[in-house]
Design goal:
It holds the Pfam family INO80E. By secondary structure, the protein is an all-alpha fold. 87% of the residues lie in helices and 0% in strands. The protein has 3 helices and no strands.
Length: 131
């Protein structure tokens, strides 16, 4: 159940990141980049553009919300699985107890039969030795 949801959510998240990256690149007007190149004498010494902290903050905030939501979903799934495990463990213990009761009952009757047959075999073996 979560596998399909998880894959779709990862794909949606990656698509949103790609869209936000393309929006941030297109936000700078192309003529401003050209004007900077015109004024600089050396293209390798272009100053690094300042990081857009507002965009980074909003992106990280979205990722945090997504991770919190995902964590809650996994905790819910874990809780359900633990409940099922507890139920199965109780059923298993109950069935093993019932099986043990029947085995004890069967073993007492089979032990008495084995004892009688072994006593008969010993008795027959003793009679054969006397002859």
């Amino acid at each position: 159940m979560l596998d399909g949801w998880y894959c779709r959510s990862i794909a949606n998240m990656q698509a949103n990141e790609a869209a936000s990256a393309s929006n941030s690149v297109s936000a700078d007007p192309p003529h401003s980049r050209d004007s900077r190149k015109d004024y600089s004498s050396d293209s390798s010494s272009d100053p690094e553009p300042e990081p857009n902290y507002k965009v980074q903050y909003s992106t990280l905030k979205k990722k945090l919300k997504y991770l919190i939501y995902e964590n809650e979903c996994f905790q819910d799934a874990l809780r359900c699985s633990q409940k099922r495990l507890l139920k199965v463990s109780r059923d298993r213990s109950f069935l093993l107890d019932r099986l043990l009761q029947y085995e004890k009952h069967d073993s007492t009757t089979s032990d008495s039969e084995d004892t009688e047959s072994s006593d008969d075999a010993t008795y027959n073996h003793a009679e054969a030795m006397k002859r």
